[in-house]
Amino acid sequence: VLTRRALLTHGACALAALAGPPRFLVRAAGAAEARGKALVAIFQRGAVDGLSMVVPHGDPAYYAARSTIALGRPRRGDAATALDLDGFFALHPALAPLIPLWDARTLAIVPACGSPDVTRSHFDAQDYMESGTPGVKSTADGWLGRAAGALPADGATPFRSVALGARLPRVMRGDAGALALTSLERFDVRAASQPAVSQRGFESLYREGVRDLLHGTGRETFEAVKMLKSAGAARLTPANGADYPRGRFGESLRQIAQLVRADVGLRIAFADVDGWDTHVGQGADQGQLANRLRDFGAGLAAFARDLGDRLADVVVLTMSEFGRTVGENGNRGTDHGHATAMLVLGGGVRGGRIYGRWPGLAPEQRFEGRDLAVTTDFRTLFHDITTHHLTIPPTTPLFPGWTPPGRSLGLVA
Amino acid sequence: MSRQAARWVLAALALALLGCAGAPANVPIAAARVASDSAASDAAILHMLQRSTYGPRPGDVARVKALGLAAWLERQLDPARLDDAAVEAALSTLPTLTMSIADLQREYPRPDPETQRKLASGDMSPREMREQYPPERRPARIVAELQTARMLRAVASERQLQEVMVDFWFNHFNVFAAKGEVRWYLTAYERDVIRPQALGRFPDLLRATARHPAMLFYLDNWLSTRPGFAGRGAANPGRRAGLNENYARELMELHTLGVDGGYTQADVTEVARAFTGWTIDRPRQDARFVFRPAMHDLGDKRVLGRPIRAGGERDGDQVLDLLAAHPATARFIAGKIVRRFVADQPPPALVERVAAAYRDTGGDVRAMLRVVFASPEFRAPDAAGAKIKKPSEFVASAARAVGATADARGALALARAAAEIGEGFYEAAPPTGYPDRAEAWVNPGTLLARMNFALSLAEGRVPGVRADLGELVSGADRSQPEVVLQRLLATLLHGQGSEETRAVLTAQLGLPEIRRLTVDDRGPADTDVAKLAALVLGSPEFQRR
Fold first, then answer.
1. pTM for this entry
2. Backbone angles phi, psi at A11, to 5 degrees
């Protein structure tokens, strides 16, 4: 018979809650830690078409495979064509706000990145990219959760690891704990009168009693509420004229920037953005995918502008569970594929460069005859960033069962 | 074995017999009632209510006790015989619920492209837009009424188990309101496919979802054709069409076999071929299922090692039959049911027995539920409170616990509150639906949102929701805060509050804000029931079921 205790101990994070000490040790070391480097991970859920995001216009097979959805060859001054990067790759025209970042060498691109696992299920592939263990479903926590656990505990705050959204994503689960929130402004106890009385009441309810998932989470909640209030993060307005696109993605990035600028100890942040599953009517320079990318590019550019000098401490990493078929399907869309493009943006990034080998799009170069092949294992990319940006020792098993390659991508200075 | 446990086994046996016999319900019920009336303790009744309803209302435990737990359960398993007139009357204020797809498309049209263009270019002001295209005629209204109805039923329907299973099966066969045409199909999908068969047979649900335009559209099967098809009825007439694997994959991974169910990429492709031609006729009018032979791949198929002899429309039916009868499907469905009703980590032995019930009865949902409710795993003392309420369960259970009544506006406000805590009805984008595990729902942000909802409910700040907390503590002397607290704990937590929670709440009673004194300070005159009730509803215990 399964007891409640056994149930709770099944979750790794519950284990930590049972173990006794709080998941974080609050503000012990102060400002030094608070100004540490931060990683912002963005998950494009639904499998973005990397071949439209980062267009291989120099690959002759690209135009042959896509009769209605290919982006036009770069032509200077023509806003409908792809925006050239290096004579072979180009950005989708809706990503125009990212061109200055590429030119400033703060944006790097890995055009054929992905998982060694062949699944084309969104569910499985997202699960693997979040657990960091392709092909292994039993992994309880996520790679960002493990990364949070590998950061120095000294001076850790409740905002060390934050996901924007109502639910904590798989990737953030782990012993170190993480915070999920939808809005900094509303992150407080709100009562008709005397909210402080209610807040203290709730706080006591979760402070006392058994150490389980609920109580542990409750204790974290109130620590975070108090800290956020004293740091005044929610009152920071976008700096340097940064203009975030309306909608959830822009809001998420705006709030992550607030947390960075308020020095509340943010080290790992996560946001997701969906709408990439373009099976039907994907569009080219205009249309469904172009609209999503416009939001995406504008959001990232606003974030970089808002952070200003603080971008030196931040790396933004974008990912998606897989790419899409090289060939266009019968509905002017694309089906589930294999490799996709991932972007890395930040002050410490060796940008303005393409990383990883281009496998080619000719039918015989494709994975299983239909998809872009993976030439950079996503773990290689992620590991590079945790090692060189977050300075987590490279021997830490963030990706169990996998040995990092001898040579780093050299993506982070 | 304790005496109580022995009685439980007796009751369980009686229930199990019921399940197998399939005889007219009133005969074996009499036998079960004898066994259970003396056996079912308040705790057992409470546990059953926590798991098979949206939470007990004041007086529910006593009502079930009077009726007998087994008899109560049988009634819940036969919802058509339960009078639900009050809820039906409230629902009748929502006109879209009874409309056909064709009517919905006509009455709640998509924005006209010309109007949108004018709005974007500035040729039309937002005000003119509102006049030409008022919000009450927009398709968003359809979804809002569905969300209203779902919450209204969760809070007030007598057919509670059916509502729980509607939520379960909708989530299992999830479609997403915001994908394309789905919003016009949702009403019919839930009303005609999910609700009538929520306590029926799984293969019927499977077949009905497979042919419904909501599913055909959501998972793109309506567009899937044999390679090279370019005829009339293609999604983009005159253009080449082709195979779309989306439905085929999710059908096996999420609807039937489960991700470990032993199928391969080749099976996905073969299943997709079998379903080519299953499409939607006139998707922007009445959106009827149609099989178009010209779109169909006429070749033979082979699925999970079994040949599917080319038979046109029958190909898809053969695949559905094959999947519905597959042992992996029985196990997968059983596992999900056990996770919903028993524990996040389903006890394997119980899953096996529920899967056996699936196999023995051809996927009869009632039979599977009977096995669950009669099982020792379900009634194990540790099972009580082991599940964390998901947001819609928390919101509805809080409203029910305080005996709140909600009109349509109130139900929508409650549905929005659940969305803020992370679970909006019809708003799960991926085909997996929403997760059914504690870790997915417990984190600082949403815990705070739960406490804030508890406050707004208790303080009467949810528009359209009336909760008379005075009624809840009626008879208690409000000048004695201890008595008020005792009453609240008894009504809202049914004596399940931990020592610590009681101690913390008792300590609150000393606060001047809770224990309001009279002006001359001669003694407590009143207790702030709302503040106390909010603390109870936001307590750790109330997050569990």
1. 0.81
2. -80, 130
- Residue B353: alpha-carbon gap to chain centroid: 24
Give me B116's structure tokens: 């949108």
Q: How far, in Å, CA of A63 to CA of A66, rounded?
A: 5
Residues of A within 8 A of B420 (CB-CB) are: 166, 182
CB-based contact B460:B467 (threshold 8 Å): yes
- Residue B359, judged by CB atoms within 10 A of its CB (0-12, 13-18, 19+), counts as middle
Q: Is A87 left (phi over 0), alpha (psi -120 to 50) or beta?
A: left
**Contact: B235, A189; criterion CB under 8 Å:** no
Q: Which residues contact A167 (CB under 8 A, 6 or more apart)?
A: A180, B422, B435, B440, B441, B443, B446
The two beta strands, A161-164 and A268-274, are: parallel
B502 to chain A: closest CA residue? A205
Taking CB atoms and an 8 Å limit, are B241 and A331 in contact across chains? yes
Q: Is B523 on the interface with A (CB under 8 A)?
A: no
Query: What is the DSSP annotation of B81-132?
Result: GS--HHHHHHHTT-GGGG--HHHHHHHSPPPPHHHHHHHHHTSS-HHHHHHH
3-state helix, strand, coil in chain A (%, to 5): 35, 15, 50
Q: B275 near B246, Cβ under 8 Å?
A: no
CA distance B98 to B107: 13
Q: Which of residues 209-268 of B touch A (CB under 8 A)?
A: 220, 223, 225, 229, 234-236, 239-246, 249, 253-254, 259-260, 265, 268
pLDDT on residue A232: 92
Query: Tell me: the pLDDT tens digits for B232-244?
Result: 544 444 344 689 8
| Chain B residues 309-328 with CB within 8 Å of chain A | none
Sheet containing strand A179-181, edge to edge, reads A179-181, A161-164, A268-274, A38-45, A314-319, A340-346, A107-114, A376-377
Answer for the pair A377, A115: CB distance below 8 angstroms, yes or no: yes
pLDDT recorded at residue B487: 93
What are the contacts of B387-390 at 24+ separation with CB within 8 A?
B387/B51, B387/B343, B387/B344, B387/B438, B387/B544, B387/B545, B388/A213, B388/A214, B388/B438, B388/B441, B388/B442, B388/B543, B388/B544, B388/B545, B389/B55, B389/B441, B389/B543, B389/B544, B389/B545, B390/B423, B390/B434, B390/B436, B390/B441
Contacts with B171 from chain A: Cβ below 8 Å = none
CB contact under 8 A, A2 and B513: no
Name the residue in chain B with its Cα closest to that of A45.
Answer: B430
| pLDDT tens digit sequence for B104-140 | 999 999 877 677 667 656 788 888 888 888 888 999 9
ipTM for this model? 0.87
**Neighbouring C-alpha atoms within 13 Å toward the C-beta of B240:** 10
Q: Which residue of A has its CA nearest to B240?
A: A330
Distance CA B53, CA B44 (A): 14
Assess B422–A contact: CB distance below 8 Å, yes or no. Answer: yes
Nearest CA in chain B to A168: B440
Q: Which residue has the higher pLDDT, B145 or B512?
A: B145
Q: Within 13 Å of residue B363, how many CA atoms lie on the same side as its CB?
A: 23
